[in-house]
Design goal:
By secondary structure, this protein is of the alpha+beta class. The radius of gyration is 25 Å and the shape is globular. Helix content is 18%, strand content 40%. The strands form seven sheets. The chain has a 15-stranded mixed beta sheet that branches. It is found in: Membrane.
Length: 495
């Protein structure tokens, strides 16, 4: 597939190759290809299939790059989502990026309660129809993959011997349906080249939705679960050797949101890591202390210990952030005391807010969350406050951290996760982060069962630029084409 892409890129971009010399001179080199006439076209296609198959086994695995849209701001969108292509022929679906659940599911034909339109701009909802995909296959109850579904949902069997599921989310919404096996299509970046790839995956075909999932104002086609269990797409692709057992995101907080989502490990010198708490259904990490401007708050570490109903969870499917109930009041009180001379406090709908005429970055303290192993997450004022409105020229900023009455859960949602590289290293059982401008490109490395490849200056990730648009990249593509031709015809001349 890679060799085919290079030839197409060269043919579509120009009939001649433009070489840029050191002195700015250009030289036009005509490209010609002599096709043999002694073979049938079918024989040539068969030869190419064998040749490409042999080549692809030697080429490095790429980084899977998903587009990111949406924003953390609950007054705009309040979620981040991506697009996936499923089935044959491929159909595109908008799905929420959710590290708090495991399974990818989309709304299916004849769904009860599924929205048919969305209030989000430029989103056209669609429904997956297994009968319209030539490669779709329902998962039977005897299929071992059906047993994997029990790790993530209430599974059951229908009278048609279909493996079914039911998901209930924390906001009271829910969905149910049946599992389907079909192809997922995605973009893979290898070095500076982007190729189209596909792999078989199992995902949910929802036939019923309830609660907030039925509301059209922020409706999307489904949810893309990035959890650790066996039916998560990251687990399925890594078990096939298609991708590394690690994924990363960088969610942009300003200027309309968006960001980066890759199946691979973003490489950044300032990344710090903390271990995952073992044997947990979510991405639990050990929060040990909270500090304001370097002063640690008097909160017992036991408040954050992981148990059945407490602990700290990293969840991109949560818009705001939540503190354990015992830690919430000390935290908010300390914030209020630190800014008492510069803002006017007020309570709006039970939430602590502040009226300010100055930049909050100059007034509010820096918050440091320290985790096991000494890893610290630094939060700016924009990472724990949300602007609601303005009064008489003064901005009203409200506490973005909330509490769940009667529970000791701390949840780090999009409010905290934005403007940071977040790496979920499942192979190493750790999570890393670093503050970052998510409008910038990133470097990514990928380690799979087939080996390790480093990707340096991966410019396509983050700006979705086409390598065919740049003359230097085009020149590199042409050179690579000739090298691959020489390698192929030299190594496999006996075919």
């Amino acid at each position: 597939m890679l060799v085919f892409w290079v030839f197409v890129c060269v043919i579509l971009t120009a009939v001649v190759v433009v070489v840029v010399g050191d002195g700015g001179m250009t030289v036009a080199l005509p490209l010609e290809r002599v096709f043999p006439t002694s073979h049938e076209l079918s024989q040539l296609r068969a030869f190419d299939r064998v040749r490409h198959g042999r080549m692809l086994q030697q080429l490095p695995n790429g980084v899977v790059d998903f587009p990111v849209e949406g924003t953390y701001d609950p007054f705009l969108v309040g979620l981040y989502f991506t697009r996936v292509q499923l089935g044959s022929p491929p159909k595109e679906f908008y799905v929420q990026i959710d590290t708090g659940s495991d399974v990818l599911w989309v709304s299916c034909a004849n769904c009860n309660g599924c929205p048919t339109s969305s209030g989000l701009q430029q989103i056209q909802l669609d429904f997956f129809d297994p009968s319209s995909s030539s490669t779709a296959r329902p998962i039977s109850c005897s299929d071992q993959r059906c047993a994997l579904g029990e790790q993530s949902s209430d599974s059951g069997c229908s009278t048609q011997n279909q493996c079914g599921y039911t998901f209930q989310y924390g906001d009271g919404s829910g969905t149910s349906g049946f599992y389907v096996a079909d192809f997922m299509h995605f973009d893979t970046i290898v070095g500076s080249l982007t190729t189209n790839s596909s792999a078989p995956v199992v995902f949910g075909c929802s036939t019923s939705e309830t609660g907030d999932l039925t509301k059209p104002d922020r409706a999307i086609d489904g949810i893309f679960g990035f959890g650790q269990q066996g039916l998560s797409v990251i687990a399925q692709l890594s078990s096939q050797g298609m991708t590394p057992n690690v994924f990363s995101h960088c969610l942009k907080g300003s200027n309309g949101g968006g960001g980066i989502l890759v199946l691979g490990q973003i490489v950044e010198p300032n990344l710090v890591y903390t271990p995952l708490v073992p044997s947990q259904p979510h991405y639990n990490i050990n929060l040990q202390s909270i500090a304001l401007n370097g002063q640690t708050l008097a909160i017992s570490p036991q408040v954050f210990e992981t148990s059945s109903n407490r602990g700290t969870i990293v969840d991109s499917g949560t818009t705001l952030a939540y503190l354990a109930e015992e830690a919430y009041d000390p935290f908010v009180n300390a914030i209020s005391q630190a800014v008492s001379q510069n803002v006017r406090p007020l309570v709006a709908k039970g939430n602590q807010c502040y009226l300010s005429t100055s930049s909050i970055g100059d007034i509010f303290p820096t918050v440091s969350l320290t985790f096991a192993g000494g890893a610290t997450m630094v939060l700016r004022a924009e990472d724990y406050l949300i602007q609601q409105n303005s009064i008489g020229g003064a901005a009203v900023w409200c506490m973005g951290f909330q509490k769940i009455p009667g529970q000791g859960l701390t949840i780090l949602g999009d409010l905290v996760l934005k403007d940071k590289i977040i790496v979920y290293d499942l192979a190493g059982q750790r999570i890393g982060w670093a503050n970052y401008d998510c409008s910038q490109a990133v470097n990514v490395s990928a380690t799979t069962s087939r080996g390790k490849t480093e990707y340096v200056n991966a410019g396509q990730i983050g700006n979705n630029s086409s390598p065919c648009n740049d003359p230097y990249t085009l020149l590199l593509s042409v050179v690579l084409t000739f090298v691959l031709q020489a390698l192929v015809f030299g190594t496999y001349s006996f075919l």
